[in-house]
């Protein structure tokens, strides 16, 4: 699922489209730092690991673009706390 996450720059959010439903994380970019503000998973996708796939995918995109992340969103912050392999991305 994570490789399906894309950066919808015009909406300033990372998106994951599954079965016609879009899970997303909104962000603000300031230079080389992406601040993750809020994450939403449609109720139809809840409980299936979609939020985690979205977090993993957006963090992989941030890494591949040589950026850093500031997770104001509690979900993404908790994901990074549980997955230390992403700790190096913290701004």
Automatic annotation (TrEMBL):
- Specify the N-acetyltransferase domain's residue ranges: 6-91
Q: Does the keyword Flavoprotein apply?
A: no
Keywords on record:
Transferase
Q: Does the keyword Transferase apply?
A: yes
A Pfam family matched in the record: Acetyltransf_CG
In Gene Ontology terms, what is one molecular function of this protein?
transferase activity
Q: Which InterPro entries match?
A: Acyl_CoA_acyltransferase, Gcn5-rel_NAT, GNAT_YJDJ
| Protein's name according to its UniProt entry | N-acetyltransferase
> Which species does this protein come from?
Undibacter mobilis
């Amino acid at each position: 699922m994570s490789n399906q996450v894309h950066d919808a720059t015009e909406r300033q959010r990372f998106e994951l489209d599954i079965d016609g439903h879009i899970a997303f994380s909104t962000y603000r970019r300031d230079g080389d730092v992406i601040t993750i503000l809020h994450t939403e998973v449609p109720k139809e996708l809840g409980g299936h690991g979609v939020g985690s796939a979205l977090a993993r995918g957006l963090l992989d995109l941030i890494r591949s673009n040589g950026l850093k992340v500031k997770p104001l969103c509690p979900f993404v912050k908790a994901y990074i706390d549980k997955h230390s392999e992403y700790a190096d991305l913290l701004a």
